[in-house]
Amino acid sequence: xxxxxxxxxxxxxxxxxxxNDESNHVNNLDLNGDGEIDYVRVMDMMDDNVHVFVLQVPVxxxxxxxIAVIELxxxxxxxxxxxxxxxxxxxxxxxxxxxxxxDDGKDNRKGAGPSVNPDAVYVGIVVNVWYWPSVRFVxxxxxxxxxxxxxxxxxxxxxxxxxxxxxxxxxxxxxxxxRPYVVAHTHRIVHGPRxxxxxxxxxxxxxxxxxTSVGHYRVNHKKTTVTGPRGNKTTVRKTTVKGPRGHxxxxxxxxxxxxx
Length: 260
Fold this sequence. Notes:
Elements: H1 2-8, H2 12-19, E1 41-47, E2 50-58, E3 64-76, E4 79-86, H3 88-91, E5 95-99, H4 133-138, H5 167-170, E6 181-184, H6 191-196, H7 204-219, E7 221-227, E8 233-242, E9 248-258
Antiparallel strand pairs: 1-2, 2-3, 3-4, 4-5, 5-6, 7-8, 8-9
């Protein structure tokens, strides 16, 4: 949903507004547990041809928590690549999504929704996002990196928080975003993590509040990667499968092999 909005808007400021628009059904976060949706601010860190847009939530007067980052790199005169990376403290592991297309290079807007299988092996064309209005905007000569001016208890006049909805209400909204996005297993923007990691912001209170659920997820999604003598990598992921009442039904093992 975040990437879908980023494609449609014409600037990072408009993207921040779209993320926090209740009618877009992208934001359902209540990280501090106060019963109200959190405001997500956007901040752009730029280095040469690389932009890192941080999606961050102020959870108190003194603490903030990063949710995800959109990494963008201009790779040619009229070419650019983009990925979104979910923060491991929120999602249990660092998950990378990117836009996908058919093998013939055409957008597959009528295809299935986003892949929810992090073990899926995707081999396809890297989508050129240069013609997205927001991308063209941030590479214009007069552009200055957008840094949200909003802080804890200081929000735009047009925004009013609402109550988060349950998963059963929230899940059907995902069908609104039909363009396929797929899990990627590597950072295409190599310089992106180098820019972001020293500036990553986490909240002690958020970590404490969600430590049990995040820890449970990590225990039940064990992943082991072994690198062979020729650089080939084999990843074995074991996932505990539970029934509706929490009873363990079995373990699913997925093996992914990649050549070095």
